[in-house]
Amino acid sequence: MPGRIAFQGELGAYGHQACVEARPDLEPLPCPTFEHAIESVRKGDAELGMIAIENSTYGRVADVHHLLPESGLHIVDEHFLRVRINLLGVPGAQLSDVRRVRSMSILLGQARQFIRDHELETLDWTDNARAARDVAENGDYAEAALASELAAQAYGLNVLARHIEDHDRNTTRFLIMSREPDFSRRGNSAMITSLIFRVRNIPAALYKAMGGFATNGINMTKLESYMVDGNFSATQFYAEIEGHPDDRSVQLALDELDYFTERLRLMGVFPANPRRYERPRPNSD
């Protein structure tokens, strides 16, 4: 029996597609929420979790950064999924029949121009694949779903319009998470170290904490802040840097960071995906 990889959503979700692309040897395990997906890995129901963290059009996925520190899991890889959004309708329906479209708000926000051009009413749904399933069950020509072609196949829907996303390089980045860290691998190019930290309550603490990365020549590719427990004075940071914790320069930078933080935790070490460094090309998909 193959191992399993958990994702948020139902069969046909973009998380399902990411699982198929990145870990075709594992059986996708649908979960209703990111919390359930993380818990499935933590309990051993799945070996890995595929967790969406940000989209090139919509921005970061809400709440995921709050789940990472307490998940007890470790980031072991990343996957970039080219998100192609399709309008899915019941068999027999035409684009001109559609009056309402349902999907998650994050996906509706990635196809605003198409929705405006066709004067469609939007219905915010909990999951893109669930939206497709509900459209199939309702059988209403006037309703359609925004989802993947994988969802169309799963629920017997027709693709009424393909690739309707606002930006032709629309991409979602996923983190692949495991119960155990893996510091043994070395990528063909850069390694990425991810960490979460909370600075001490002293003047210029963040400025001083960042100084160690500059003086040791470490490239920080991501730094995001978010409040802790709704407290305006308690801010936590999620960061990603190029390098491996075994590198001497990274060790020195982390030692300096540790001095100015009251909490510091490594979340994972993984090879940089080549798509991380892709640059847009004219008329390129």
TrEMBL record:
EC supergroup of this enzyme: lyase
Pfam families: PDT (PF00800)
Reactions that this protein is recorded to catalyse: prephenate + H(+) = 3-phenylpyruvate + CO2 + H2O
Domain Prephenate dehydratase: 4-179
CDD domains: ACT_CM-PDT (cd04905), PBP2_Ct-PDT_like (cd13631)
Keywords carried by this UniProt record: Amino-acid biosynthesis, Aromatic amino acid biosynthesis, Lyase, Phenylalanine biosynthesis
Gene Ontology CC entries for this record: cytoplasm
Domain of life: Bacteria
Record InterPro entries: ACT-like_dom_sf, ACT_dom, Chor_mutase/pphenate_deHydtase, Preph_deHydtase, Preph_deHydtase_CS
Enzyme Commission number: 4.2.1.51
Protein name: prephenate dehydratase
PANTHER family documented for this protein: PREPHENATE DEHYDRATASE P PROTEIN, PREPHENATE DEHYDRATASE-RELATED
UniProt keyword Acetylation present: no
